[in-house]
Amino acid sequence: MKKKVFITGISGMVGSHLSDFLYENTDWDIYGMIRWRSPLDNISHLISKINAKNRINLVYGDLCDTISINNVIKEVLPDYVFHLAAQSYPRTSFDAPLDTLDTNIQGTVRLLEALKTYCSNSLIHVCSSSEVYGRVPADKVPIDEGCTFHPASPYAISKVGTDLAGRYYAEAFGMNVQVTRMFTHTGPRRGDVFAESSFAKQIALIEAGFIDPIIKVGNLDSLRTVADVRDAVRAYYLLLTHNPIAGESYNIGGTNTMKVREILEKLMSFSTVSNQIKVEIDPERLRPIDADLQIPNMTKFQSHTGWKPLISADDTLKDLLNYWREKIRSNGNVYLTR
Predict the structure, then answer these.
(1) H/E run at residue 114
(2) What are phi and psi of 132, to 5 degrees?
């Protein structure tokens, strides 16, 4: 019998790329959870397969609704679980902290409880975040898994809860739950609330003549290590298929470290109108407190799986910019998220 994989957040950037990877590289049947209002843009290229029930299926559920989570797990009974769904925007979490905490912490507990009840032998990936480390002292960089948590946003606090819940269910109930703390990862389909995707979107809108040649930015001095989403999903696959060890946590990320300012400069260098563009600080894009020095030590995961990132930062950022160019070519003017 073919294996079944369950993906929460299949319609997000990571979930959609993971679906692409699993469809091409396994024979598993893929079940992706969506809410009734979930946009399907990121999986539009999969719709024909979904309609034909060709190995990809959509099921309805909501992390904030216990009954729906129980129902969907009873229906699917997955062998593998990739828990990617979350309120994942740090800036938004300052405006909606309770929604963020409910979705990310209690939503994870609802899912793990359902799995414990109906299929406790599943191999489970709980997606945490490098944001749990938050404000890291310079002497702790690069950051390893033993670094103290110092979350700098309600989102990061929620991911601390998510992270600890994953370990708890592994230790308390013998479930094979593993946690990843993924550092900045981007590429095509990245939401425009994230800095580098907002920059790319604004450049594409400027090139198309829809907005004035001014890019609105937040904190440009924060340090990030950039990874490609397609490298990330390959890592997630290895996590559950290469000698998975219950209760372990792993840092995963890229090897291209740069300030947000350098990311913006790289994106601008790929544009034919870069000499016309001005950069302005937008106070609405500044967080009350910011995580910094987000540079991972990935020795533990790389030693365990042999994984390493393959896609360069330049190629990732070019693909991101081309994604927005194509979206604007297809749809015309699009809303500029603040």
Answers:
(1) helix 107-118
(2) -60, -30
Burial class (CB in 10 A: 0-12, 13-18, 19+), 62: buried
CB atoms under 10 Å from CB of 5, counted, come to 24
* Residue 258 in this model has a pLDDT that exceeds 80: yes
Q: Containing H/E element for 250? A: strand 249-252
What mean pLDDT is predicted for residues 257-279? 95
The one-letter code for the residue type at 205 is: L
**Side chain identity at residue 117, one-letter code:** T
Residue reference for tokens 């194509």: 326
DSSP of 151-211: --SHHHHHHHHHHHHHHHHHHHH--EEEEEEE--EE-TT--TTSHHHHHHHHHHHHHTTSS
Give the pLDDT confidence score for residue 338 in this predicted structure.
Answer: 58
DSSP lists the bridge partners of residue 249 as 179
Name every residue whose Cβ is closer than 8 Å to that of residue 233 and which is 6 or more positions away in sequence: 14, 17, 18, 20, 21
Is pLDDT of 311 > 80?
A: yes
Residue 292 has pLDDT above 70, yes or no: yes
Give the model's pLDDT for residue 284.
Answer: 86
Tell whether pTM > 0.85.
yes
Q: Where are the domains of the chain?
A: 4-186+228-252, 195-224+256-293+311-331
What are 287's two structure tokens?
A: 């967080």
Residues 6+ apart with CB under 8 A from 209: none
Class of domain 4-186+228-252: alpha beta
Confidence category of residue 304, pLDDT binned at 50, 70, 90: very high
Class of domain 195-224+256-293+311-331: alpha beta
d(CA 298, CA 292): 18
